[in-house]
Each structure stands twice: as structure tokens, then as C-alpha cells.
Amino acid sequence: MGRARRQPRNESRHRHAVRGVSGAPDHERAGIDLFRLHLPGGAAGTGRVHAGHGQIPWLSPDRTDALQGLPQRRGKSQVIGWWKTWKALEARGIMGINRRNADYVLKYNKRSLYPVVDDKIITKERAIAAGIHVPEMYGVISTEKEIDRLDEIIGGHNDFVIKPAQGAGGDGILVIADRFEERFRTVSGRIISHAEIEHQVSSILTGLYSLGGHRDRALIEYRVVPDPIFKSISYEGVPDIRIIVLMGYPVMAMLRLPTRQSGGKANLHQGAIGVGVDLATGVTLQGTWLNNIISKHPDTTHSVDGVQLPNWDGFMKLAAECYELCGLGYIGVDMVLDKDKGPLILELNARPGLNIQIANDSGLTHRTQAVEARLEQLALEGRQESALERVDFVQQLFGHVPSA
């Protein structure tokens, strides 16, 4: 299949470097650790940044945290090396955690609207009301007493998913693939009893998997069956697509592929693969896995780049519409491709990670600044763009140019 290479266009310079990430959640720090950026020869300087010629493979948390205080504790040559590294990241428009939080999350996301994305049930209810496609919701269990309704909710479904409404990272999710006599078979092949399912629901209600550790609700929903296109490039589980959206404009996309190491979860920090996606065509770009740039899936050995994702414009339109759905200006939209139902919204994230930049070999800042400039222009003209117009704008501006 056709490959694609990066061709940055109309992207202004980044004013902030990757800075201290002390105190940031592990899953956010990992986004900085994964950077593998190809820079002009010598850009890495002489600083100790684990770099080969012309590369910045990754910056560990202690080193990124040290940037602000570097002049007081490093020698002159190391300071120069760090400065070159900093400027190289800046030139590529790499967005760091501080910039993401201050200039985008805090600026565009009202705290009062966080429950819309932090609670999967609220997200799903809003999506259904707006006519946006999501996995069908079979039922919700909110109290211990309601666990008695589990059989009623499951009904005649042989497969289903139970997940915490306010969980994160895939924790607490139970995926049932089939029934086995009076018991159930999980996607991993484990046979469990009805009592074990009830125990899992009870654990969810106690808040064992919730973001703040407070009481939660259990959501029972349709089990997504991945489109056959993923069979050769994914290990078990369900691959998903993350698109970062600023004020309704999709700015960057990534396909996340489960591996044996990730336990079938599409979670990069547990060992899944992140693969960049061309916004214009839906063709996959390079992959990143465990701090390495890869072209093949480690379990299936099939190429992960150059794959044409079906119904790509449908994914882009869904992502763009999520701005009106939740009211938050800077979000990560997680979607899946079901073999029968097509593109579906799984969940939204008000604090999307930064490692999507690695898979795309491109910084977020240049793109977000281009969108902000577009918004300023539209404000002067006194008009707004529809979801389809927003998609067309970013596909023209951020789409990659196929190699000859």
C-alpha cells in the first residue's frame, strides 16, 4: 500500500520547550519519554540526552525536570547541549505537559464540564441524544442492590462488556466473549462464574477503578468486534483510534494496536503500539513501541505502516462533532471500528497524552496554533465552520504528501 511522509505546512514556531514534568502522572510523563525525533545533524549537541547522530531518542523525566535549573548545576558544555536540545524540540513544535495544561487544557476546558468526559455513562447518554454512534448500552448498575438486575440487563446476549463509568487505562474492564454452559468465557479464554461477574461489578461500585477512588457505576454494553482489517496487525483485544481535537478541529491522529505485552489492551503505557495516521487519507504512518520506532507488529510481524483505514472521513467527522457533544475545547476522542457497525465513539479524554506526537513524528503546537489562527480569522468574519468544513480545513493543512 502507499506510504506517506511528513510535510509540515504553515506551522509557526513553538515558543515553549518540554519542561519540568515533576509531579505529573506517570502516563503523561511517558509521553515525553518516548520522543524519537529526527533532527538536522548535530542538533542534539553534546548534552547527555541518549542521542545518536541527529536524533533525540528520548528525554527521561529526571532530565526534562532538570531543564529549568540546569544553569546552576551543570557545566558549560552540558548547558549548551541541553540548550540545543531544547531549541530542537522547540523548532519541531513539540508540546510539553506544561504547555498542554496551561495553554490548552486550562484555557479551553471548563472544569464544570469535566464530568461529561470523565463519566462514560454521561458521555454515552449525550452521544445517543445527539445521534452520534456509540456501542449500545445494555444497562447501568449504580448500587449493590441493583446487582440483582444483572441477568435482566444481560438478557440473551452471549457477549458483552462491563466497565467502570469513571475508570481509566482500561482497568476494571471485563470482556465476555461467549457463554459456556452456566458460566462465561472471557476474551482471553478464561471461564468465570456468574458470582465472579457479580464480584467484579461490586468492586467497580466501591470505586476500586475510579479516577478519584470514590464510588462509581458499572456500565454494561455491546462488545465491539474489530474490523477484519486489524487481524494481521493486532494481538487480541480491540484496536482504537485516538484523535486530538481543538475547538472542533481534529489536529492529530493515532492508531493504537494491542500486543501480547499489553495483554490485549490498546494502552501504550502497558506495551501497545502507537501508529501515526495521515489526517487527509487515513493511511497509517510509522509505529512506536517501547521507545522504539517500528514498521512491523512484534507479534504478527505484519507491517503497521501504509495501511488504509476504512471509512476514515467518518472517523474525522465523528471526532469533530464531539466538540459540540461535550463543550470542551481540547479533547482526545477514542474511537473503534466495528466489523458490523462501523466507526463508534468509545470515550473522550479532557487531558489527552502527548505521545501521539511520536507516532506522527510531528509536534502538536504548530497545528494547534494554526487552528487558533483560523479561529481568530473566522471571528473577524463573524462566522463559524461546520464539522465537515473543519475536517476539510485540517485535511488540507495537515495532510501528508505521498512519497514519489
UniProtKB/TrEMBL annotation:
Pfam family, one: ATPgrasp_ST
GO molecular function: ATP binding; metal ion binding; ribosomal S6-glutamic acid ligase activity
Domain ATP-grasp span(s) in chain numbering: 124-375
GO BP field: SOS response
Keywords, in A-Z order: ATP-binding, Manganese, Nucleotide-binding
PROSITE patterns in alphabetical order: ATP_GRASP
Basic residues bias spans: 1-18
Name of protein: ATP-grasp domain-containing protein
Source species: Pseudomonas syringae pv. apii
Taxonomic path: Bacteria, Pseudomonadati, Pseudomonadota, Gammaproteobacteria, Pseudomonadales
